[in-house]
Every structure is written in structure tokens, then in C-alpha cells.
Amino acid sequence: MKGAFEPIFHSHTFYEIYYFHEGKCNYLIGDQIYTLSPGDLILMYGMTLHCPKIDPSVPYIRTIVHFDPAILRPFLEMPQAIPFMQPFDQFKNYRLSLRSADKEEAERILGVMREHQLRGDPVGEGRLRLAFVDLLHFIYERCLQPLRRQKEFPSDKERTVQDVIAWLEGRYAEEELSMEQIQSELHLSKSYLAKIFKEVTGATIFEYVFRKRINEAKILFLLNPELAVTEVSFRLGFKHLAHFSRLFKQQVGVSPEKYKKQIREDGSGSGLTAAGTVERGTSS
């Protein structure tokens, strides 16, 4: 991607790995500002508002990987699996400053991922997923010390929003999900919940729920291409197929039927592109 880069604050329901190759950039994540150097890698829990502020007078190159952690379940459930998602779960947002050999290895893995993605065939998609799991192990290994020494706790508001999101993880697909139910089970007023959730994440609770449902629909279509659109719609808590189809097209850009057709034609099954892309972008 080349040309002018228009930074905007945004959030999303998937996770993000951001790698800074070159340029001048301050990255704003929530209330934190990171001045980046080549080799900086940022782990992002996407629902926190974030935005790169770049200097347009110099070339700006970064690689972004978007993903839904649902695609990693098979790897995390293997015997003696490494808990490589722990840095995302514990830190939420975190910067690794990679230098020398670590920088070279990260760029090598990202290059391999990009090569496999560009193949556009089932073998390439499988190897892309394996290379991505290798990247997550690489990141986990370099987060071991900070994970052990982390003593900080989030603010009360952030902790409450994390509790809400954790609760929603098990309930987001329920058809009768409502603010009244959330209020009753979490023992917090609807107005307070709505206020702090929007303040911390930049989205309303039901914007989050619907984004989460659509992302999960994309994963289901990828991993279970035989599922009908109607079945996926009802499985994810939509009362009406038309509502599901409208939201899917708004968020993804194509109808569920067309998305399923694209999967069949492309043979895409990595699950990385289900929630975003492996993307190297340039702006100058």
C-alpha cells in the first residue's frame, strides 16, 4: 500500500501485531504515547483506541498482522502447548524494542509470512498459519521477563471494562443478550456500564458485540465452509437473517454469500485474513 497515510483513531475486535520498519512515528494507544524506532513491535488488544501519528516528510513503512485468537485454539489445546497468547491477555498493549539478532529474526518471520500469503493457495495458507504461530512463540519468549515482573494493575474503570469483555466472551452469541442482563449479572448500572465502556474502548457495548459476532462469522465460514449463512446467523444470536446480512456487509464490504464464494475461489483458510491481513504498508 503506497501513498498518503491518513491516521485516525480506531478500534476493532481483533488483535493486532504492529512492526515498525522505518520512518518517524509516535503511536498513541489509549493514554500511552510510544515514540517508535525501527525494530519496535507493538502487541495490541484492538478495542483500545489507537492511532499512528507519522511525519509525512519521510518514508513510513510498517507491517500489520490482524487476527482473531479463535484461529489459535487448536495450537493452544495441543499437549504441552506454550501459552503464547499470555502477553496479549496480561499486557493488553505492549511494546517490544527488538534490536540486532532479534530484529533480524522478527523481520525474517514476517517476510516468510508475507511470501506464503502472496502464494494464494491452500498450502501457502497453511504455511502462513504455521509461520504466524512461530512469530507468536518468538514474541512470547521475549516477553517472559516482563511477564514475570509485571506488578501494575489497571485502573478501576479499565478493570471493570475487562470484566465486561470477559463476561461477553461467553455470552456474545446469546440471542436475548441485553443491557438489563449485563446490569443484573455484573451488578452495575446500565448508564455507568455504557459510559465507561465507550470511554475505555471507543465503542459501545453492542457495537463491540456485533463486531465480535461478525468476526466470529468470518472464522466460521473459513473453518466450516459447509455451514449455511442462515445457520451461522442464528448460531451467533441474530434473530433475523436480514440484520446479520446487513451488518456483515457493512463491516466486511461484501455479503455473507459473496464472502463464502470468495473463500471457495481463493482457497483461503489461514484465519489471519478472516480478521484482517498481513500487510506491509509504505507512505512517503
Return Rg in Å.
Answer: 19 Å
Low-confidence stretches: 1-5, 273-277
Structural class: alpha+beta
| Helical fraction | 40-55%
Q: In CATH terms, what is the fold-level topology of the largest domain?
A: Jelly Rolls
Strand order of the largest sheet: 7-4-1-6-8
What would you say the CATH architecture of the largest domain is? Sandwich
Could you say how many structural domains there are in total? 2
Shape: globular
So what's the CATH class of the largest domain? Mainly Beta
Number of strands: 8
List the helices and strands in order: EEEEEEHHEHHHHHHHHHHE
Given the structure, what is the number of helices? 12
Q: Which whole number gives the mean pLDDT?
A: 85
Q: Beta-sheet strand percentage?
A: 15-25%
> What is the terminal-to-terminal distance?
11 Å
The main β sheet shows up as:
5 strands, antiparallel
SSE blueprint and pairings:
Blueprint: E1 15-22, E2 25-29, E3 32-35, E4 40-45, E5 50-54, E6 60-67, H1 73-76, H2 86-91, E7 93-97, H3 100-119, H4 122-142, H5 144-149, H6 156-169, H7 179-186, H8 190-201, H9 205-223, H10 229-235, H11 241-252, H12 256-266, E8 278-283
Helix pairs in contact: 3-4, 6-8
